[in-house]
Amino acid sequence: MEGWFSRRSARYGVNTGILIFVVLGVLVVVELFSKERFHIQWDTTKNRRYSLAPQTKKVLEGLKEPIKIYAFYQEADPSRVSAEDLLNLYKTASGKKIEWEFVDPDRYPLKAQHYKVNTYNSLVLERGDRFEKVYLAEEEKITNALIKLTRDRKKVVYFLQGHGEHGLDNVQKDGYSEARKAMENENYEVKPLLLAREARVPEDASVVIVAGPQKELQEQEWEALKGYVEEGGKLMMLLDPQGAPGATDFLSDYGIVLDNDIIVDRASRLLGGDYLVPPIVEYEPHSITRDFRQSPYLVYLPMARSVRVAEKMPEGVTAEVLARTGPGSWGEKDIERLRRGEAELNPEDIHGPVPVAAVATIKTKDFKKNGRILVIGDSDFVSNGAIDPNRSGNQDFFLNGLNWLAEEEELVSIRPKTAPSRPVMLKPGQWTMIFLLVVVAFPLAILATGVAVAWSRRRKK
User: Fold this and answer.
1) CB 244 within 8 A of CB 305
2) Domain containing 363: what range?
């Protein structure tokens, strides 16, 4: 055996066999870890630029039918690269229920005409005989289009009007036009509701929202809301300090307590806010607030009041607190003293952390469906001046509450954010330094190195 192995041909044969096994092993490992079978990706960017938002993942996991995406880009368009990266993320996260392809509208004009595409960089999402169009490959737009495409009907959300509430079409700072747009992006139909001239809430109402009434509701309006909830309706109440006083009595029937106070949080100044704009820092385990513990965005409540749960619940009602402000906050009950800027924590005040949001579930008489109520002690947090999703979690908090009420819990999550543009601004001196380094110093260094090498070789000769 030793003599056989000492032969050169035998050694070559053994080495060749080992090499073949090594190559085969590498191929097996590559196949196992190929993108088609085992896909791992780490996103180390600050804004999670190459990761899908939690809501997008939930929507993709819930897909029941395949979706086809056509990306109408010119072949030479450099933005195709980023679009391709994003669409591949969707394809992978959907378990290949999403397929996509680029279409050059100049080469395939009939296809562009079929989908009514007249703008470059447009995307068409198709499900069966339905399709949705978006402009630019951005996660927020694509996910919103998927939500609209995968729901067969729009649920209707009514906003109570006639008592000084926020205007749905008002584009000013205190308006709700951005909130309306956000709801429509999640496939809700938004309508105003004048209960003063209606006998009851419309039959098609999925959710009724009472947002910051400044005047008292009439008794028949409270009765209509009461009948709606106790028949299984869903009600959201965004109530400011010293708002409609009838809300206190109305909510007491469902185990929710409103105090006549204003929340003060001096620690909010450390976060760049006013002491009357407390952030929410504590969340209870509930589907509405579950993802906020990992969210980098805080929810801010301008001029908020406390919302707590009664110690003894009415029969057939369960209620729980959703969120609280920080431990250094308190609910100031001496409003006049607060207006003079002399507020300080007193024994009669509500000591922090202060509860600012609560939910109640009401069992109906026929037990077919339960009524739901969500109460938040502020209405300005979703106004145009505060709802920006790239600056706070206010929009997510509002929409999560809406989706929970509407029993669309698969949409309850943290939504995609638009990646902020962060241009690098250089001073004139920095531009000069870069110019000297790149255009002058580096070429001279290379030239000097070449001369030195040539001189060294000449000396050796």
Assistant:
1) no
2) 154-411
